[in-house]
Design brief:
- The structure is a single chain.
- This protein is mainly beta and 115 residues long.
- The protein has 2 domains: 44 residues, Single Sheet (N-terminal domain of TfIIb); 67 residues, Roll (SH3 type barrels), CATH 2.30.30.
- It is 9% helix and 30% strand.
- The chain has 1 helix and 11 strands; from the N terminus they run E-E-E-H-E-E-E-E-E-E-E-E.
- It has a 3-stranded antiparallel beta sheet. A 3-stranded antiparallel beta sheet has the order 7-6-11, with no helix packed on it.
- It is elongated, with a radius of gyration of 21 Å.
């Protein structure tokens, strides 16, 4: 029983093998376990989208689209500021970067667009 295959659609553990396919008793979804294994390994990388829906990658340059207040600083990061060489992270602020005059900080991808 330690070799239970979860349904990729509803994540139920009530599945069974039906010829060369797997079937789910909860949502009646059928799938090929070999294809699902290939899809999950290719989707393991982090996918971050900017405000326009473009995919961002490590090392990209982005432009801030609105003034962003910075805690502890008298002035905000102005709209139109170009940020070079970003690093993508997992979490609420999914971009790590260095902004000239402000230092290292985290940005949300919804407030930038790809340069």
């Amino acid at each position: 029983m330690s070799d239970v295959t979860l349904c990729p659609k509803c994540h139920s553990d009530l599945t069974w093998e039906n010829e060369n396919l797997m079937s789910c008793s909860q949502c009646f979804h059928e799938w090929d376990p070999n294809e699902v294994a290939l899809e999950t390994t290719s989707e393991a990388s982090l996918k971050v989208l900017d405000s326009n829906g473009n995919e961002l990658h490590d090392g990209d340059s982005v432009i801030v689209i609105k003034d962003l207040p910075v805690k502890g600083m008298p002035k905000p990061v102005k709209a139109g500021t170009k940020v070079k060489n970003i690093r993508l992270t997992d979490g609420d602020h999914n971009i790590d970067c260095k902004i000239e005059g402000f230092g290292s900080m985290g940005l949300k991808s919804e407030f930038v667009r790809k340069a």
